[in-house]
Amino acid sequence: LQLPAFDKETGKLNTIIETSKGVRNKYKFMPDIGLFALDKSLATGMVFPHDFGFIPSTKGEDGDPLDVLVLMEESTFCGCIVRTRLIGVIEAKQKELSGKIVRNDRFIAVFDKQPTYADVEELTDLNARVVDEIEHFFISYTEMEGSKKFMPLKRSGSRAAQRLIKSQMSG
Amino acid sequence: LQLPAFDKETGKLNTIIETSKGVRNKYKFMPDIGLFALDKSLATGMVFPHDFGFIPSTKGEDGDPLDVLVLMEESTFCGCIVRTRLIGVIEAKQKELSGKIVRNDRFIAVFDKQPTYADVEELTDLNARVVDEIEHFFISYTEMEGSKKFMPLKRSGSRAAQRLIKSQMSG
Amino acid sequence: LQLPAFDKETGKLNTIIETSKGVRNKYKFMPDIGLFALDKSLATGMVFPHDFGFIPSTKGEDGDPLDVLVLMEESTFCGCIVRTRLIGVIEAKQKELSGKIVRNDRFIAVFDKQPTYADVEELTDLNARVVDEIEHFFISYTEMEGSKKFMPLKRSGSRAAQRLIKSQMSG
Amino acid sequence: LQLPAFDKETGKLNTIIETSKGVRNKYKFMPDIGLFALDKSLATGMVFPHDFGFIPSTKGEDGDPLDVLVLMEESTFCGCIVRTRLIGVIEAKQKELSGKIVRNDRFIAVFDKQPTYADVEELTDLNARVVDEIEHFFISYTEMEGSKKFMPLKRSGSRAAQRLIKSQMSG
Amino acid sequence: LQLPAFDKETGKLNTIIETSKGVRNKYKFMPDIGLFALDKSLATGMVFPHDFGFIPSTKGEDGDPLDVLVLMEESTFCGCIVRTRLIGVIEAKQKELSGKIVRNDRFIAVFDKQPTYADVEELTDLNARVVDEIEHFFISYTEMEGSKKFMPLKRSGSRAAQRLIKSQMSG
Amino acid sequence: LQLPAFDKETGKLNTIIETSKGVRNKYKFMPDIGLFALDKSLATGMVFPHDFGFIPSTKGEDGDPLDVLVLMEESTFCGCIVRTRLIGVIEAKQKELSGKIVRNDRFIAVFDKQPTYADVEELTDLNARVVDEIEHFFISYTEMEGSKKFMPLKRSGSRAAQRLIKSQMSG
User: Fold this and answer.
1) Which terminus of chain A has fewer Cβ atoms in its 10 Å neighbourhood, N or C?
2) Chains contacting F (3+ CB pairs below 8 angstroms)
3) Which residues have CB under 8 Å from A100's CB, separation 6+?
4) Per the CB < 8 Å rule, is F33 touching E2?
5) Residue numbers in D near C34 (CB within 8 A)
6) Region for B137 from its dihedrals, namely left if φ exceeds 0, alpha if ψ lies in -120 to 50, beta otherwise
7) Does A74 touch chain D (CB under 8 A)?
8) Which fold has domain A13-166?
9) What does each of the 171 residues of chain E score in pLDDT, given as a tens digit?
């Protein structure tokens, strides 16, 4: 996937959606095959709260590309590229099934070519409850996955988010 | 609504669906108007895990008709009558916003005219994880509603469920 | 339900939709309660090919109101009134589970306020394959219901359909 | 429908949804029958931009109850009661097919029990483009209905909207 | 994408769908990456009236492959190849945001393996209102995009459409 | 598509979904282009009863990869890889339009990371009616395709299914 994390001309954050808003199945890109696979399914009653995917050309502490949630008016589909405005990050740690604790941030971006998100530049421009619900979603869904645990650390704005991404560029 | 809890001829449990599986909005019947109203909306990322409604001609400790979840292959719609086979109950207490603790059982029934649920007669005929996910859903969604709290007590089979309903018939 | 089969002013055929196109669950109006109930569910892989319901103020040989399929561009919902143009009928007999054979016609109407069906006045204005597929649907779904059997007799146009309805007005 | 325009205790605006967001068919309540009917269908490519319905116990210049758009996160269904916060009105005139020009305001309300609209108290709290798109929708869809014409006059806030509704209470 | 505009054996027109019927988001193929990107989103209340995409191995005056609308009974998905019968073209000019006016035809094709479109060979075989609605859609949606403007010139049949495509083959 | 039929580490059966449950359009992978094409559309009223696709690195008697149905709780999308547990096969012959009779088995697998199918290891662990409905679906849909005919021979368990796949590995 020859796509940089940030578009050179516009500075927009590139994202690849894996799981759309409202979907219970979690999909994952298989870079060696070029297709997406069904990875797992959330407990019934839980669905992704926003389009969810990864930032290309990055690599997080768990070896996977960095995770990103994209807020927009109509959801897209698995495999779709969305150029977004990065507004912040929920910094977090996650206890894996192995017991190991790794950094597992959730970056937050908006599709800003729509009126609902046109004026949103920072995480704090959203109603705080929107972010509470996102955090609760990640806590709640890992509760149903054995000893896994999602632990939010703090919420940071667009600049901190950008620094965090730039420090985890792959290749 | 002139409908008994149990059908006289067949013994089937009558249910009125208020919120379908996969829906985030919780609807509530307004008996004086004869229509359904949008009551509240779950936190984003949460949707009802199965068709959810009430048992007519009953009245629980909180003053509302008893709650019921109906498992079936294709979900129905708000206002639909479904005649079901009662298979059990998640006995529970709920701490209300007022701090008061009231009994708030969730009865479980199946639409048995479909192969997936044709052989399910008791809660224990379901994979235990199905019931775990239902309990987790009720715990998780009340977590996002201030000081409200859902506390499962125990799981009981069809007979105990029937007794509990019969002891809470209204009128 | 105080609604005549034919609108007095316009001559349009009144219909009440019970099951929308694409839905697998068959719903049925409960006149004494004023709500719709889940009656049964088609075998998996089968869904209603068009909005399906009944003609008010009629009563067929099986004691129920006459069945009608309404062709339109976007489907409606259970309980919706649609004023239509009657274009014909698939005259048919049906062998019931009891072994008894009763007349069980399927009337065909269109919602003519949309371009796709604006010019359709008779069953023969549709591509014959559209009607073949409808017949096949009714044959195929009764095949999965024990000894039930749907037997098409012939296809007739709007006049014959109108006469058949008028001869089965209730009250 | 025994429902006042404004709830006595909370002051909330009562609305009855007829057509959900994303739906192309326009439905209309039939007060004498107690059901909703398919009234017409928008031109293909047009769908209602938000849940759309009427304010009970009101009567506008065209003889129908007043129209209202309700903004919320997940749409509801035809026949649903939604208690809302009134935020304003697009005051408008409409040229009917008969050539007659009548007042035809579109009231705007939000379901405020969800984070997206929790802080929206006035029409001006929305991005102006959201209201532009609503106006454009009404202009554009009447363009496809012969000589009908929707003419926005001005946008007013919650107080003016409330006065306009109170002056058009029926009964 | 190694796919000719016309299939050599059957003469069918190859199309690649980018945006399905009923979708508000406009997607665009990124040939260098091999994925589709969210390009923009229509104003709320507007959705694509039919599956919309491009004709491979062509290049229009605006530098992009030629646009095509494919009429069929059930819509497909972004990235799907549909082999179609070309029935005509809405010849048009478009004023771009830059002020420049370029040719921007919309070719019309049908998926003819379904009864609804089995007999449609020419644009004139469709109800004229179907084409009116398509034209109105393109006019209406560009109205909401600043100074952009879609100007239909004339409607032509399958032969003229074929000539226009053949004269704009790339490579 | 560099994907073996069976995963080397886990022994899971790899499948590529072409048509999701509930979809009427049948899609087909075009290996030379790397995209999926709309192949045909079932008769109206028929939709795929479960996610349907092929087993990579296999080749059946008809020259195509082997067909597989994957049972799971929420359907996936065209092009998705699903790693499954193989539970059996409906062995069958099919009369093609050419009159030629070829073997055309339908392998059955489950996505076992969900409670509904967690305990299903053999075809006989499903309610027999589930398999009856699948067979009826294939019989019924080929009935509408001219002289084509689907003839089930027998149902076999996971071992026989595995042997059949292993004997039809390509390359």
Assistant:
1) C
2) A, B, C, E
3) none
4) yes
5) 34
6) alpha
7) no
8) Inorganic Pyrophosphatase (3.90.80)
9) 789 999 999 999 999 999 999 999 999 999 999 999 999 999 999 999 999 999 999 999 989 999 999 999 999 999 999 999 999 999 999 998 888 999 999 999 999 999 999 999 999 999 999 999 999 999 998 998 888 899 999 999 999 999 999 999 986
